[in-house]
Amino acid sequence: MSAEPVVVPSQVPTHWYNLAADLPEPTPPALHPGTREPLGPQDLAPLFPMALIQQEVSTERWIEIPEPVRDIYRLWRPSPLIRAHRLEKALATPAKIFYKYEGVSPAGSHKPNTAVAQAYYNAAEGTTKLTTETGAGQWGASLSMACALLGLECEVWQVRASYDSKPYRRMQMEVYGGVCHPSPSDLTEAGRAMLAADPDTTGSLGMAISEAVEAAVGDPNAHYALGSVLNHVLLHQSVIGVEALAQLDEIGEGADVVYGCAGGGSNLAGLSFPFLGRNLRDGTSTQVVACEPSACPSLTQGEYRYDFGDVAGLTPLLKMYTLGNDFVPPPIHAGGLRYHGMAPMVSHAVNLGLMTAIAVDQADAFKAGVEFARAEGLIPAPESTHAVAGALARARAATTDETILLGLSGNGVLDLPAYADFL
Ligand SMILES: Cc1ncc(COP(=O)(O)O)c(C=O)c1O
Questions:
Q1: pLDDT tens across 353-366, in order?
Q2: Sheet of 222-224, strands arranged across
Q3: What are the tens digits of pLDDT across the range 135-194?
Q4: According to the model, what pLDDT value does residue 33 have?
Q5: Strands, DSSP E only, in 68-117?
Q6: For atom 14 of ligand 1, which residue has the closest CA?
Q7: Cis link prior to 330 (omega < 30° from 0)?
Q8: Confidence class of residue 3 from pLDDT cuts 50, 70 and 90?
């Protein structure tokens, strides 16, 4: 085994990286659903604090991470970048595989990178409560944790399919003091309408977003927090890639290709955008591959057009690859990947040819997750197994010692029943 299996830089990044500064063309703006004009800051004020609204439209390359946020990041950051020697050996590949592991956060995934930042800015501007949606529950648990650390209340609408099949995440939210409802619920107008249309619906992220947005708009002390998709979320997640770049630099490696799973696009963007920025500025040629589920293939099968981020049409219109805002994906285990759209900035990058996308079948994803666990010990989150499947296929086909960087967005130990279905 090599002498450097684990690379950990000594410092938490001081700044987030913003790809908007380096894109050859700006990302199409979010539009007001009524006027179809680009949104102004006041349009978003009922939902988000001003600091996040400014980040949403910022084109500054580097944005300083407030010291209190860095202080919380220090609980688990920098996260490790690990050379997967054992996996390489098991695959008999000449490729070098590194994985950046975000499951070391207290909540178990990359989601706290933005949850902490969003809770911080909301608390700083006097909000006392955040509402949100969650799929598998990783985001709801992360926001509940961040709210606990920063003294806010947290109310979460969890997609019905996951609420029923993943009770441990709800319990995790409750330990942190969060309140979790199944979605659709009878607590909101949007939820009641969805239940009237289909009382047995398994729910979707788009439905849960409608409920959480409605709840925030109706409460003067509450704001809404989104776990993916928006520019400010992708910005916060860039700590992953900023660290990974520094970690690879430290050992004189580059990344030939980056694989990340993509639901709304935030962990993929967080890991890959600093590498894309370097491509655009310095002419490097790191490839980026988004790995999405074949059951919800927005990038590989969707249309690139303006669409709502939710089912009820309460959100702004976003230019993105979309399967249609009323698309209800089948209840696959990777609940965090069941989103009809994709982050506008990831969609724009795909449209410009800066990254590519593949769709992975659930069975192939779990097979890869099991292979990874048996070689490296770590059980990836069901979402992350989609990236593992992409990286494994690449490594198997490799004929050179190319470097593959794999984003492992979360830990799967609370998802073992899902694994059990595929053993
Ligand atoms: C572990 C994990 N990975 C990935 C995702 C997908 O989200 P995103 O594409 O925004 O990273 C989720 C969403 O809940 C998740 O929990």
A1: 999 999 999 999 99
A2: 179-183, 153-159, 129-134, 222-224
A3: 889 999 999 999 999 999 999 999 998 899 889 999 999 999 999 999 999 999 999 999
A4: 87
A5: 81-83, 96-101
A6: 336
A7: no
A8: very low
36-52 b/e with 16+ CB inside 10 Å = b? eeebeeebbeebbbebb
| Radius of gyration of the chain from its Cα atoms, rounded to whole angstroms | 20
- The closest residue, in CA terms, to atom 12 on ligand 1 is 336
A 10 A CB-CB count for 285 gives 10
The minimum-distance atom of ligand 1 relative to the CA of 139 is: 14
Compute, in angstroms, the gap from residue 237 CA to the centroid of ligand 1. Answer: 11
Q: Which atom of ligand 1 is nearest to the CA of 136?
A: 14
Report CA(381)–ligand 1 centroid distance (Å). Answer: 9
Q: Are 8 and 80 in contact (CB under 8 A)?
A: yes
Q: Which of 270, 265, 261 has the alpha carbon at shortest distance from 241?
A: 270
For ligand 1, what atom is nearest to the CA of residue 266? 10
DSSP 138-159: HHHHHHHHHHHHHT-EEEEEEE
Which domains occur in the chain, in start order? 6-15+76-108+238-420 (3.40.50.1100), 17-61+111-224 (3.40.50.1100)
Q: Distances from the Cα of 123 to the Cαs of 130, 163, 213, in angstroms?
A: 10, 28, 18
